[in-house]
Amino acid sequence: MTPQIVRTIAELRKETAQWRAAGLAQAVVPTMGALHEGHLALVREGLSRAPRVTATIFVNPKQFAPHEDLGRYPRDEAGDVAKLGAAGAHLVFAPPPSQIYPPGFATTVSLAGPATVGLEDRSRPQFFAGVATIVAKLFIETGADFAMFGEKDYQQLKVVTRMARDLDIAIEVVGIPTIREPDGLAMSSRNAYLSAEERQRATAIYRTLREAAKKIGRGEPPKTVTEASAAALTAGGFRVDYVAVRNAETLAGPSQVGEPLRLLAAAWLGKTRLIDNIAV
């Protein structure tokens, strides 16, 4: 199947309005392109919940800091559209920046809660405001019933879920388990930046998280475990931003016995920043 490509909000709304008029629910899969199997799993999960799926491709400039890799971010629209079609997506919304942020655009979503817990927000303070703004716009523009997000970007998933709830946007945000390479590395568009040698070493993040989760599950103090995990990654050539244990819903620090926990990590390998997380 070859999905239809639309470039403007007016075209998008025209197509999705026809689906609603026919009583067809819709799932949306927001992406920045450079698609891999993790993104396609979101499309397939969307199809299991709704008869129509819209995928968006937009490299959002508002979630990149001036020193980050906006210009370097991989782009392959033709390849992405072919992959989306093979996965069963019906519509691709691929707007130019001027369509999303026209002259005079002056609004952003202000965040607290899971967006301000000292994880990704500590090193990328502008990131979640950019994410929440574009995601809110896409939720409104598509009018979708379901939104599919991968758990690899776990803090983002919780931020978007909280944002949709707080703003009363009538959409169900669905988190999908991280899709991994056979050796355990979480699939990510940024993995393409890794050299062959770095790619082999990158598996240490997932392996370290698994070992840490086992230790915490056995009752070892989380602070001791995360400090040892960060030291192990540093010894393995990583520059660690954080290894942290948090409440799986609020992302606040753990405060009571038996609460659901998530173990999260972010670290640089060469010029590539990798993130991962697992349940404890």
List the helices and strands and how they pair.
Elements: E1 4-6, H1 9-21, E2 26-31, H2 37-49, E3 52-57, H3 77-87, E4 91-93, H4 97-100, H5 120-123, H6 127-142, E5 146-150, H7 154-166, E6 172-176, H8 196-201, H9 204-217, H10 222-235, E7 239-247, E8 261-269, E9 272-279
Parallel strand pairs: 1-4, 2-3, 2-5, 3-4, 5-6
Antiparallel strand pairs: 7-8, 8-9
Number of domains: 2
Name of the CATH class of the largest domain:
Alpha Beta
Question: What do the pLDDT scores average to?
Answer: 96
Query: Care to count the β-strands?
Result: 9
* CATH architecture heading of the largest domain: 3-Layer(aba) Sandwich
Enter the CATH topology name of the largest domain: Rossmann fold
Element-by-element helix/strand order: EHEHEHEHHHEHEHHHEEE
Q: Structural class, from helix and strand content?
A: alpha/beta
Overall 3D shape = globular
Largest sheet: 6 strands, parallel
Helical run tally: 10
Distance between the amino and carboxyl termini = 40 Å
Biggest sheet strand order reads 1-4-3-2-5-6
Low-confidence stretches at least 5 residues in length (pLDDT < 50)? none
Oligomer: single chain
As a percent range, the share of helical residues equals 25-40%
Proportion in β-strands: 15-25%
Rg, rounded, reads: 19 Å
The CATH homologous superfamily name of the largest domain equals HUPs
Structural notes for this entry:
- This protein has 2 domains: 4-176, HUPs (Rossmann fold, 3-Layer(aba) Sandwich), CATH 3.40.50; 189-274, Pantoate--beta-alanine Ligase, Chain: A,domain 2 (2-Layer Sandwich), CATH 3.30.1300.10.
- It contains 10 helices and 9 strands.
- It has helices at 9-21, 37-49, 77-87, 97-100, 120-123, 127-142, 154-166, 196-201, 204-217, 222-235, and strands spanning 4-6, 26-31, 52-57, 91-93, 146-150, 172-176, 239-247, 261-269, 272-279.
- The protein is globular and about 55 Å long.
- It starts with a strand and ends with a strand.
